[in-house]
Design goal:
Chain A: Belongs to the binding-protein-dependent transport system permease family. The complex is a heterodimer of chains A (313) and B (524). By secondary structure, chain A is mainly alpha-helical. In chain A, α8 packs across α10. The N and C termini of chain B lie far apart (66 Å). In chain B, α8 packs antiparallel against α10 and α13 packs antiparallel against α14. The chains are: A mainly alpha (313), B alpha+beta (524).
């Protein structure tokens, strides 16, 4: 157990080191200059040069990378050029909406995806199966900004059930904030349920063909017991994997949905940082997102052991 | 129960309870909302802005958004009335200007309270203007004109110029890159607290969520009736909530749903929907909101030849470009005068060269100028749709006149970097707000801005314009500058566009403005 954990942890560090290098190189390889954006139209070349020096942006790239790495190793992700606050603080402030959104969206995706996947598998080839498969394909192909705007028009503008955008009033209690998350979570949930439907269906089909399922049926067990108890439990491993990966994806990838719904989350932070080349924020945020991704992957591996006793850790 | 049995039960229990809990949470969340203002008469306004302000220090940025928000907190010595005249705000009256036009004696209003409860004095003003001249890009340019800045007694401020510089008061009045007057003891870099004299004081900022301003009870208003940014200001709404809503479609939907009391800068395509909203929202058009302009590289490359620049100007049909950029004719005016009718700087000098769209003339002029088919590199971005749409049409017009065009579409951060390098471009596309004073924009009228326009004719025309402090004479002198711009083509003013925003029917007494302000507005 310990050896397994240690080797996985070492692997994680290697991945993060590669991510750090890639993130740094890629952000600097893109043209554009944060200082010109920061200072605006009226700034002179001398002003720009002075502020670049202030942020160490005049130094050669390897030196800049060295400084950044040294800080990162000490747990310091640097200070945002635009927000004038530490990147860790900026990320922390935006963690709540993003996390809640991801959890809510995954709950919705799983509640749609798992039952639909099971039904599709049980009624394989029948109209229901084709209907769900079609819906899944549709869900995977709809762009999230479009679905977002449509849901806003219907449920926020026409019916007035939900706010159009934002994360509740300044003094809003948690319930109001959650209420503001329903539409964006629905968008993400619907789109991501497609993958879960497909995986559940495939995994269930594998299992439903197994001998022990036939045995269970021949014992005279009810169909629901066979499907939900005997088949589903054994089909759970890939399903849990895909649900876990969906969470990871959403923590870093709800970018478009967060922008459309004006949510003050991590995705929004990254987008604005990219547009104005706020290097410390881009680098810090991507590194943290990568770390979360890696950690979730790691947790999924551990979860296998819980849902499937055959997996030995 | 055995240990093993317990363990077996665990996943079952947790799965079920998890499912139940999430269902419950979703049910709760799906309940219809209880808007905060249902609980009684509300006294706040939700104002949807285009982005998160990059800073709240009004001197650190020339971004309009920063000025729009912070003009409620900080005030300036002078400001603009509804007809774009400079009128006093914190100053008691217009300055006494010495006969040689170099010394400005300014007296402050007595009894103006700062947000920290102290009375404003001349030391605060001197320290603030000093900071403005040290740090703000616009202030630095003004600082070069200033010989000395001193306090004269508790309420007197004296500014001595090196040479007469007529735009001084307009520079002190502009809300963007603001010469904000702050409490001396609050001055720091970066600013830690925001202590001004405005009708609102700073309450809280949560990045990407909101900036809250709250009524300043001891605000000392002017006695004159309100006009434009000038005159009496009153914080009738207790709390202003500026929320960033960067997605333009979302701002439109929010306005239609009645979620915002004000939605700033909406796409022009949204007008029909706003007009037919059944009274849920009211569209607001701000005339002569801004002007798109093309900057030509006078330093290097193919456009460094004045004759080639003139040929480019002849090839362009600005009317078509505006139509491509803004669609609806209610949103733009194709006219060559750089300032609208009614402005003291309205002039038709040189405007016969505007909107020529004459491919034959351009072709001939280009050949005569020795143009040999070098590509004209146009730097543009999709940050604003109208930049891109205008660029596409411009490229076609240029091609029709025999020019080869290389359209470089980049994002905004790349554009603002590349334009600083004369080797990389020949024309770039941008826009500016329509300001009341020519020297405030575009920056190409100053020194060193991209394009690097620097000729004897420019210097002579601007010198004459800038030393004249009599507003009546300055109008005619601006005509001469405009003439030079049309002849030397350092930049091409494409025309004027109107701004579209929307307000809720509940927001009463809102006056459309380039930098929207909400003092004197009320919630019905």
């Amino acid at each position: 157990m310990f050896r397994y954990l240690a080797s996985r942890a070492a692997g994680m560090l290697v991945v993060l080191a590669i991510v750090a290098v890639l993130v740094f190189v890629l952000t600097r390889a893109a043209s554009g200059d944060p200082v010109s954006v920061l200072l605006g139209d009226q700034a002179t070349a001398a002003d720009i040069a002075r502020v670049q020096k202030e942020y160490g942006l005049d130094k050669p790239l390897p030196v800049q990378f060295g400084y950044w790495l040294r800080e990162v190793l000490q747990g310091n992700l640097g200070t945002s050029i635009f927000l004038q606050r530490p990147v860790t603080q900026a990320l922390w402030e935006r963690a709540e909406p993003t996390t809640l959104l991801a959890l809510m969206a995954v709950a919705i995706a799983a509640l749609i995806g798992v039952p639909c996947g099971i039904v599709s598998a049980v009624f394989r080839g029948r109209v229901v199966d084709q209907l769900f498969t079609g819906i899944a394909m549709l869900g995977a192909s709809i762009p999230s900004f479009w679905l977002g705007i449509v849901l806003i028009q219907v449920f926020a503008v026409s019916f007035g059930w939900f706010p159009v955008s934002g994360y509740g009033a300044p003094d809003a209690p948690l319930a109001e904030r959650l209420h503001a998350l329903v539409l964006p979570a629905t968008v993400l949930g619907l789109l991501n349920s497609a993958l879960i439907i497909r995986f559940t269906r495939a995994s269930m089909l594998d299992v439903l063909g197994e001998d022990y399922v036939r045995t269970a049926r021949s014992k005279g067990l009810s169909e629901s017991t066979v499907v939900l108890k005997h088949a589903l439990r054994n089909a759970l491993v890939p399903i849990v994997t895909v649900i876990g990966l969906t969470v990871a994806l959403m923590i870093g990838g709800a970018v478009i949905t967060e922008t459309v719904f004006g949510l003050p989350g991590v995705g929004n932070l990254v987008v604005s940082a990219v547009l104005r080349r706020d290097y410390p924020v881009i680098q810090g945020a991507l590194l943290v997102i990568a770390a979360i991704y890696v950690l979730i992957n790691f947790s999924i591996d551990l979860l296998y052991a819980v849902v499937d006793p055959r997996v030995k850790v | 129960m055995s240990h093993a049995g317990l363990v077996q039960c665990l996943p079952k229990l947790s799965k079920r309870s998890l499912l139940g809990a999430s269902l419950l949470a979703m049910l709760c969340a799906a309940l219809p909302s209880q808007p905060a203002h249902a609980q009684g008469p509300r006294n706040f306004a939700t104002l949807a802005m285009v982005a998160e302000p990059q800073t709240l220090d009004p001197m650190a940025s020339t971004a309009d958004l920063v000025g729009t928000i912070m003009q409620h907190v900080y005030e300036t010595l002078y400001t603009f009335d509804a007809k774009w005249n400079v009128v006093p705000m914190l100053a008691e009256s217009s300055p006494r200007i010495s006969a040689d036009g170099k010394t400005y004696a300014i007296t402050l209003r007595k009894g103006v309270m700062l947000h920290n409860g102290r009375e404003l004095n001349a030391d605060d003003v001197v320290a603030s203007l000093q900071r403005w001249m040290d740090q703000s890009p616009r202030g630095k340019a003004v600082g070069k004109e200033i010989e000395s800045l001193k306090a004269k007694g508790p309420l007197g401020v004296e500014i001595v110029l090196k040479a007469p510089y007529a735009p001084l008061l307009s520079q002190l009045a502009l809300p963007s890159g603001m010469a904000a007057i702050m409490a001396k003891d609050s001055i720091a870099s970066p600013l830690k607290e925001f202590v001004g004299t405005g009708p609102y004081k700073f309450k809280e900022r949560r990045p990407d969520q909101f900036v809250l301003l709250t009524r300043f009870d001891k605000y000392t208003a002017r006695k004159e009736p309100a006009s434009g940014y000038g005159g009496k200001r009153e914080a009738a709404i207790e709390e202003l909530r500026f929320v960033p809503v960067p997605n333009a479609s979302t701002r439109v939907e929010g306005a239609l749903a009645g979620q915002y009391d004000f939605a700033d800068l909406l796409p022009v395509e949204a007008l029909p929907r706003l007009e037919t909203s059944g009274g849920k929202t009211v569209p607001i058009m701000t005339p002569s909101f801004g002007f798109p302009y093309l900057v030509l590289n006078t330093k290097e490359g193919v456009a460094s030849s004045q004759a080639v620049r003139q040929a480019v100007q002849s090839a362009l049909g600005e009317g078509e470009m505006l139509a491509a950029g803004f669609g609806d004719t209610r949103f733009f005016v194709a006219e060559g005068n750089h300032f609208p009718k009614g402005s003291p700087f309205y002039s038709t000098a040189g405007t016969t060269l505007y909107n020529e769209r004459n491919a034959a003339k351009a072709k001939e002029a280009a050949t005569k100028a020795g143009y040999k088919g070098e590509p004209i590199r146009v730097l543009t971005s999709r940050q604003y749709d109208f930049h891109y749409n205008m660029s596409l049409l411009m490229a076609e017009q240029l091609k029709r006149a025999g020019f080869k065009v290389d359209l470089n579409v980049v994002d905004w951060a790349t554009l603002v970097q590349r334009r600083n390098d004369p080797k990389l471009w020949d024309i770039y596309v941008t826009h500016s707000g329509q300001f009341p004073e020519p020297m405030l924009s575009p920056p190409q009228l100053g020194d060193g801005a991209p394009g690097w326009w620097d000729t004897p004719a420019k210097k002579a025309a601007l010198q004459a314009f800038n030393v004249e402090s009599d507003p009546a004479k300055r109008g005619a002198l601006w005509g001469k500058v405009q003439q030079v711009v049309y002849e030397e083509v350092p930049y091409i003013n494409v025309g004027k566009f109107n701004g579209l925003s929307a307000k809720s029917p509940a927001l009463d007494n809102y006056q459309p403005a380039t930098w929207p302000f909400f003092w004197n507005a009320r919630i019905k």
